[in-house]
Amino acid sequence: MVDFITGFIERFGYLGVALLMAAENIFPPIPSELIMPFAGAAAARGELSLAGLVVAGGIGSLLGTLPWYWLGRSIGAERLRAWVRRHGRWLAMTPPDLARAEDWFGRKGGWALLGGRMVPAVRSVISMPAGIARMPLATMLAWSAGGTLAWSALLAGLGYALAEQYARVADVVDTVATGVVMVLAVVYAWRVVAIPRSQEG
Q: Cα separations (Å) of 123 from 25, 55, 126, 200?
C-alpha cells in the first residue's frame, strides 16, 4: 500500500493527491493517514508546495464525500426509519436511537460534519446523514471543508516537519486510526448483541 501511494504521488503530483484523497473517502482502506504525510514529506523536499497539496487533498476529499451524500439523499429519512424498524438490530440502532440521532443532527449537523471529517472511519460516511437530513449541498460542503482542510493540513504538516521520517508519522497516525476502527467495530458488535429482537419492528 505504501509503495503504491508514494509511487502514485511521485508520478501525478497534486492530481495524484486529489485522486487518492477522493478514493480514500469512497474506499476507506486507502488511508489519508498515509497519503498526506508522504505528500508533506515531498513538499519538504521541494517537489510539491505544502499549501498546494493541502488544497489538492481538500478538494479530492470533498469530491469523495459526494457519493455518500447523494446515497443519503436517495435513501431519505422515511426509508431509513422503515429499515430501522425492520432491521434495527443489524444497523445497531433502535427507532428511539434514530429519533435521538435525527434530533441531534438537526441541532448540531454542521459541527458534526466539521468534527466527523477528522475522525477515522467516521470521516468517510459522515456526509450520508447530511444527505438523509436533506442538508443543502453547499452547506454540507462548507462545513465539511473546514474539517477536511484541518485534517489534511495536520497530516501534511507533520510529514513536512519530519521530512524523510514521514513514515514514522504515518505509522503512529495509522495505529491510532486502526485503534479507533477497532473500537467502533467492538461497539457495533456489542450493539448487535445487546439490541433485543423485540425492539425491531
A: 7, 18, 5, 28
pLDDT digit string, tens, across residues 29-75: 667 777 888 888 888 888 889 999 999 999 999 999 999 899 888 88
- Residue 31 is classified by DSSP as -
Distance between CA 119 and CA 124 in Å, rounded?
Answer: 9
Q: What is the DSSP letter of 138?
A: H
The shares of helix, strand and coil residues in the chain, as percent rounded to the nearest 5, are 85, 0, 15
Alpha-carbon gap, residue 14 to 49, rounded angstroms: 9
CA dihedral angle for residue 30, residue 122, residue 42, residue 55, rounded to 10 degrees: 120
CA–CA separation, 141 vs 138, rounded Å? 5
> Which residue has 524523510 as its cell numbers?
164
Nearest to 116 by CA among 89, 87, 148, 86: 148
Q: Based on the structure, what is the number of domains in the chain?
A: 1
In this structure, are residues 25 and 18 in contact, taking their beta carbons and an 8 Å threshold? Answer: no
Report the predicted TM-score, pTM, of the whole model to 2 decimal places: 0.73
Distance CA 130, CA 68 (A): 9
**Which residues form the domain of 13?**
2-199
